Amino acid sequence: MPIRRDDRDRYVEVELRRGEEPLWLRCGACGELVFRRRLRENNYICPRCGAYFFLTAEERIAALVDEGTFQDLTLPLESKDPLSFSDRKPYADRLREAKETTGLKDAIVVGKGKISDHWVILAVMDFRFIGGSMGTVVGEQLAFAMERAAEERIPFVFVVASGGARVQEGVLSLLQMVKTVAARELLAEAGVPYIAVLTYPSTGGVMASIASLADVTLAEQGALIGFAGPRVIQQTTGEKLPPGFQRARYALEHGLVDGVVPREGLKEELVRVLDVLEGIPSGG
Ligand SMILES: [Zn+2]
Fold it and tell me: Can you give the pLDDT at residue 221?
């Protein structure tokens, strides 16, 4: 079924019941109930309307990395809640809930794996963990991943799914922008390529630092790419924003990304980029 323009851009709610994996999910775009296995086979794209469901870090890794090659290198770090922060609920509670829901220690997974015979170091964000926000732990994992890629002289692939800096860690989370940018320099000095894959959403402090500094930047179809959200910009500037603003296609037309790729073609496109970067002549 052809993808309708409006549907493919829409965020899709996943029905989650605590402690068990539901067999059926409801598509937030078309309202249809979709069998989970069918959805998995279809790259988590709604078979009825073509809307994209969020991918967890684990699902994203399974979609991109050759089976059986992934080695999890995520450092055993957890946020210490340095400011004892509390908004509507204490940050410590948010952290605990996010850990329970995702089974992760923070919003990122780092590892080494093969993408069609190319070894890469991967860092993959998980939006379920406090909106994929970057605090001290995410910053450290990213810096570590880049150091490792520079050391091993293999490409670094960063899959972004982030609302931005983690406000609950205040200025410490903003420092991660500086830290990750500094680590990115190591890749440049070692002549190691960095490929960013921007997904829905790639915004805030992550986009304003490390996510926008790749050698090659791909956007998954339907990605949201920007710094502040459209409503804030509209209120601040007092101007009406153009249609499609901050969407992947808009970012491509304005030179912010090098390509917009549908989810099912993402691995193939990464392979093509890696082939070119590693000097392997393309087959077609
Ligand atoms: Zn649908």
Answer: 92
